[in-house]
Amino acid sequence: WLKLGNGATWRILLLLTVGVMAMLVFPCMSLLLSLAASYPSSMSCDFACMANYGPGASFGYMGIANVGASSGATCAIATDVPTEGFTGGSSYTITVTSTTALAQKLTCSSGDIGGSTEVNTGSKVTSQTYTWTAPSCDSSSSASFRALCGAGGSIDEMWYAEEVSLSCAATTTSTSTSSDTIPGTSTVTGTITGTSTVTATITVPENAAGIAVYAKGAKTLFLYSLGMAIYSWLF
User: Considering the entire predicted model, what is its pTM?
Assistant: First the structure.
C-alpha cells in the first residue's frame, strides 16, 4: 500500500466498495424484477381480453402454461351492490378472494375502479377490496367484473374468477290511492328508485264538531305498484 501512495490507495478502496455494492444491489434488483414479472400485473389485459382466460384456457405468461381447470374459491369476486341493482354514480365495494395468497388482476366492463377499468395488486393476498364507481344509470345499464388470481415462480398457478354481472336499479312509478272514497282527498303520485320511502300527507274532512269523517268507515290507505298493495297506513 505504501508504494501506491495515498491517492492510489483511495482509488483502489473506492473501486472495491463500488464492486461490493454492485454485487449486493444487482441481485436484489433482479429479484424485485423477477417478482414483478411473476404477477398478473406484468401483463396488460382489459375486460375484453380477460374473456380469453377462462378455466382451463391456455395462458403462456409468467411461465404458467394454463389457467386452472376450475373456478370457485380459488379466485372469487363479491360485491356489496344491493340485489335490486346499482345506482348511477354511487360507489360500491368489490372484493376478490382466493384460498391461498396470490396476486390479483380485476377488470370491469363499465364504471371505474379508482379511475381505471383494470387494476392489480402488487403483492400476494388472500383478500383485496376495491372501490368501484357505477356508471350512469338507465334501463339498459349494466356492469360486469372479471378477475385473475395467481403467481409464477414457486407457486406457478393462475385461476379465473367466475364473472359477476350487475344491473342498474329499476326506476318505477307508483301511485297511492285510498281503498275507499274519502271526500276531499286526492291521489298522491311519486317515483321510487331502488329502495325508497314515500311519505303522503292525507287530509281527512271533519264534521261540524271537528271529528274526522271517513266515507263508509274506511281508515286504511294503500300504496299500489303494478296493481299490488305494497305499503299501507292506518289513520
Answer: 0.62
